[in-house]
Amino acid sequence: MDTVDGVFAKAAAENGAAVHLVFTDGTSCSYAETYQRASRFAGVLIAAGIEPGDRVACFMGNSRALYEFFIGCAIAGAIAVPINTLSTARETGALFADCQPKGIVAQDPGDALPDDMFADAAVLRLCSDAETPDGWQDYETALAEAAGGEISPRSRPEDAAMIIYSSGTTGAPKGIVLGHRQLVANAEMTIAALGYNADDRFLTVLPSFHLFGYSFDFLYCGLVRGRMVVLPGFEADTALQLVERHCITVLAGVPLMFVQMFQPERLAGRDVSSLRLIDVGGGPVPVSLVRRLKDEIGIDTVESYGLTEISTVACVQRPGQPSPEGSCGVVLDGIEVRVRDRDGGPVAVGEPGELQFRCGTFMNGYWAQPELTEETLAEGWLHTGDVGRVDGDGNIFILDRIKDMIVANGYNVFPKEVENVLFAHPSVEAAAVIGVPDDVRGEDIQAYVVPAPGVQPDEDEILDYCRRELARYKVPRGVTFTDSLPLTASGKIRRFALRQ
């Protein structure tokens, strides 16, 4: 069971009748049905001439076809390339030029996938959920016409399973190649730490084309053979309705999702008592949010930290066990961590520096970028580019990205610390902090704030609050109020967009 398709082949063989996917229209399908349809999709790929190692892209949100795509690509030995559905034609074209996919499945090709993009790629084009344009085949028709019967899987544990393009929080995406064995091994390590089991019911509040959602919902659910309710796209009210209707037990998402879902006025009258565990990750987590989820609502809430390059999770708090506030817990079993200064030397316990990890679940490398791969995995350690510290008990605290650190008047300021203070203000729903150039101070701190619903916050009031809670050099010079923050599809703040 060291391949992605192997996980679901075994589930279909041993628990075939168990409900796998539940859809918002009330219909569902079993593990056996999922694997059968994924096998037919693999047959479509093979019949089109897709060879092991060929790339096949998808442009789909959370849907039945997306999960069949992941499994079917693995059966056929192809490398799955999920593309962010918010991508423009320019962005998608750059990814196509980089990995040169031989096939693509899209819910709706639309403007993001113009015909001229396929001059040198995509011998197979399937449309899963729209009127089929010229040059495309209907997904369901292709599956129905595919040769039946079992297909001998062409995947091997050592093969690449997928290429995830970085979400672009720093500007230029890069293709991160992940192997079957590493994905499954990291998933098993995380499941052991979190205690997921066959009785759990998952809800896809995250997009599964991103590794956070792919792992915590699709792959973890398949490994424990739980039930997954498919939410096509996140919307707070709908998510809460589904939690209540389907007795969801576990959720994984980014902080802003839970800030929105668990607002008192939105939660009023809702029964969320089925929720036993929430994992919060994917960005700076406000301490106030975790306190509220744990203490006021009574849901065991853990923080985790991961990277695509490590095949998802590096460390996580353990459910039901004490963990220092603001930490991401300790590393998973089988992972080592160290902290290094700018010169590569060790730092004292509890002091900040670059977090580096060593384990057996590293990426295969960056697609067509061997020099960057060697630099990132130098000396067998993953150089994360993240600033953090590790206490005497091994608890990891994430401070910020090295490139996001602000240097104001010679002092290092980590945006996360300032954002946590802003989050704690009752007038603030969401916040982001960046450094802007200043001729005298080097950088000034600028805050962007999304007001809480029904509130008209005052800039002076918020700045006075920051002065009470922060050292003078950490206080923003100004606050810009905005209706929303620029986010990636996985909910991370796109700081580079704020700087632009």
Largest sheet: 5 strands, parallel
CATH class of the largest domain: Alpha Beta
CATH superfamily placement of the largest domain:
ANL, N-terminal domain
Strand order of the largest sheet: 4-3-5-6-7
Please name the CATH architecture of the largest domain: 3-Layer(aba) Sandwich
As a whole number of angstroms, the C-alpha radius of gyration is 23 Å
In short:
This protein is α/β, with parallel strands linked by helices and 500 residues long. The chain contains 15 helices and 26 strands. The chain has 2 domains: 1-404, ANL, N-terminal domain (Rossmann fold, 3-Layer(aba) Sandwich), CATH 3.40.50; 406-499, ANL, C-terminal domain (GMP Synthetase, Chain A, domain 3, 2-Layer Sandwich).
Helices, strands, pairings?
Blueprint: H1 4-15, E1 19-23, E2 28-30, H2 31-47, E3 55-59, H3 64-76, E4 79-82, H4 89-99, E5 103-106, E6 124-127, E7 137-138, H5 139-145, E8 160-165, E9 175-179, H6 180-194, E10 201-203, H7 211-224, E11 227-230, H8 236-246, E12 250-253, H9 255-261, H10 264-267, E13 277-280, H11 287-296, E14 300-307, E15 312-316, E16 330-331, E17 336-340, E18 353-358, E19 365-366, H12 370-376, E20 382-390, E21 396-401, E22 406-408, E23 411-413, H13 415-423, E24 428-438, E25 442-451, H14 459-469, E26 478-481, H15 495-499
Parallel strand pairs: 1-11, 3-4, 3-5, 5-6, 6-7, 10-11, 12-13, 13-14, 25-26
Antiparallel strand pairs: 1-2, 8-9, 9-19, 14-15, 15-16, 17-18, 18-20, 20-21, 22-23, 24-25
Helix pairs in contact: 1-2, 1-3, 2-3, 6-7, 8-9
